[in-house]
Amino acid sequence: MFSINRTINFYHITLLMKRLSLLLVTFCLSIFSLNIASGQSDFYNIDKIQDVSINFSQSNWRYILDSLRYNGDELLSAEMNINGKVFNNAGVRYRDARSFTPGGRRNGLFVKISTTDANVTYEGVKAIDLSSALRDPSMVREVAGYEIARDYMTAPGANYARVNINGEYYGLFVNIEVVDEAFVKNRFNMDSEGIFYSNPNTGEKESSDCQSEYYGSLRHDNNMYCFEHNFEKISGYWSDLFDLSDALKNNPAKVKELLDVDQTLWMLAFNNVLVNLYSYSGKSSTNYYLVKDKSGRLVPVVGKLNLAFGSYKNTGVGSDLSTLDLMNLDPLLHVDEVGKPLINVLLSDEENKKLYFAHCRSILEDHLEKTKFRKRAKDLQKFIFSDLVNDRNRYYNTGDFSKSLDATIGRRSRIPGVAKLIEERVSFLKKNQNFTILPPAIGDVTLSGREQFSQKKVTDFRIQVETDRYTKAAFLYYRFDESSDFAVAEMVDDGKNDDGEASDNVFGVIITPKAGQDQIEFYIKAENAKTIGFSPQNYTRELHTSSLKELNQ
Predict the structure, then answer these.
(1) By 3-state DSSP, what share of the chain in percent is helix, strand and coil, each rounded to 5?
(2) What is the structure's pLDDT at 454?
(3) Which of 90, 254, 351, 394 gets the highest tally of CB atoms within 10 A of its CB?
(4) 170-190, pLDDT tens digit by residue?
């Protein structure tokens, strides 16, 4: 049992930590939202529509851009003005995407801010990706989708931009952060060591030395150069993909050394819950990035999202899905398909499977349940309405825009109402047996401070967590430096690790820091027989923190 003084001290530490955590969370969330949404730049602030003006010296710039689109990656020289700042040596081409239309009046744009000086940036940004949102009458799929993704993964910023070309309003576009060397510098705080983009070249036959129709699935092929047909290498070595594919096939235990498994499970959960089939989970496993981080692991980054929320409908099995099929998409889609090793291999591990469903549950609860997503979509549509109305080049009329949250738009493409799709999908998933099982109930997380009136200082972090009686295990993930990987320590309920009495559903662990490691940040994972829970639940966005200084006050 705790002594009276210790219990009082424990109680005060609990209150102090709760108050400090509340203040810290509020502060961190503000800073986090600013940094992650903007790529450390206000250029991706969702609450601000950017102004981008482009001036070509050629009056037939549309014809020239059409020609360049078919003939390599050359750029058309231009002067560009971003929110009042002028760049004289910009380069422009039509965006590489399915939305390109020859002679189209609203093709998406890729803009390099400077073609003559690699050090020239706009708030750290070297290139701009302006999406025309061809298959999205709602105009919210990309902005809302990336906003959700950034809560759990390293993902691009996205907002809206008014684009003018040669003095005329070209239209309202979605402004998406480019995944390039600048992105890696801003997000990973490092120079690029490897960036790969899954973009299978389905127009050309693969080499006879390579397997056919492996696409971007990361199935193991005969040699590393076979990946050239299915990925674009922005930087790095083909051996990185080859080694990962080899581990997925022949040595699954090694995968965690080559791949950030947790971030991959988040991407797979995101793709499935939000019916993002124009990605790894769809037909050709296309349209996602792999970025090599400081630890040498590949980290997945979601790609273009204008076809998310059921706008792209093919899983690779049979023909396109109906809207009802999309709403009722199996949360374990492809789990038995060897052709999708990231799903098949990772989810064959019971721990990963629990994590995957915990991530799915977090996305549902944080962003989609009840009317959360509908409200967010309405807010975004209201925000852009006047600029959209003034866009004479827009793909959809204002009637389709207004109906797009609920109605299926288009006779051929049949684009589902984005809010209705999500609400029906949430209803379907919550009835699925994998979502009806409750995760562990995690109560107060506390740290033991110095005994009242004691001269003996605390030198260890003694961390306790209250759980329900069904919790079988608990683990502490901790670090002393935000740039470091998390270490993991098992918490125990044996009465010997500052955890109260044995078998009282309070788990504890003692972490002894090295010299200079005064401050700790951590999260806790608790497991019962079927599921996993976290504290904080949104551990990707906030963490518990404490310091020896606080505990010794």
Answers:
(1) 35, 20, 45
(2) 85
(3) 90
(4) 999 999 999 999 999 999 999
**Sheet bearing 442-447, strands edge to edge:** 442-447, 461-467, 506-511
- What residues form DSSP beta bridges with 533? 526
Burial of residue 457 (number of CB atoms within 10 Å: 0-12, 13-18, 19+): exposed
For residues 462 and 448, is the Cβ–Cβ distance under 8 A? yes
**Domains, the chain, ranges and CATH?**
4-35+438-551 (2.60.40.10), 42-177 (no CATH), 183-360 (no CATH)
**Contact by Cβ (8 Å): 150, 37:** yes
Report d(CA 333, CA 291) in Å as an integer: 25
CA nearest 2: which of 443, 451, 442?
451
Burial of 43 (0-12, 13-18, 19+ CB in 10 A): buried
Residues 317 and 327: their CA atoms lie apart, in Å, by 17
Residue with the bigger pLDDT between 329 and 71: it is: 329
What does the alpha-carbon distance between residue 238 and residue 229 come to, in Å, rounded to a whole number? 11
Whether the bond into 536 is cis, omega within 30 of 0: yes
- Find all residues with CB under 8 Å of 427, minimum gap 6, and list them: none
Closest by alpha carbon to 235, among 189, 201, 199, 191?
191
> In sequence order, what DSSP letters do the residues of 100-165 get, joined into one string?
--TT-SS--EEEES-SS-TT--BTTB-EEEEE--TT-TTS-HHHHHHHHHHTTS----EEEEEEEE
- Sequence-ordered list of residues with C-beta below 8 angstroms from that of 236, at least 6 positions apart, any chain: 192, 193, 194, 195, 196, 292
Range with lowest mean pLDDT among 6-10, 82-86, 444-448, 521-525:
6-10
b/e map of 91-112 (b: 16 or more CB within 10 Å)? bbbbbbbebbeeebebbbbbbb
Mean pLDDT taken over the chain: 91
CA gap 95, 158 in Å, rounded: 16
Could you say which DSSP state residue 219 is in? -
- Please report which confidence band the pLDDT of residue 97 belongs to, taking 50, 70 and 90 as the band edges: low
Compute the distance between CA of residue 373 and CA of residue 360 in angstroms, rounded to an integer: 15
C-alpha 244/C-alpha 192 separation (Å) is 18
Q: In this structure, how many other beta carbons lie within 10 angstroms of the beta carbon of residue 5?
A: 12
Provide the token pair at 190. Answer: 């490092």
**Phi, psi angle pair for 490, to nearest 5°:** -75, 135
Confidence band of 389 (pLDDT split at 50, 70, 90): very high
**β-bridge mates for residue 86, sequence order:** 81
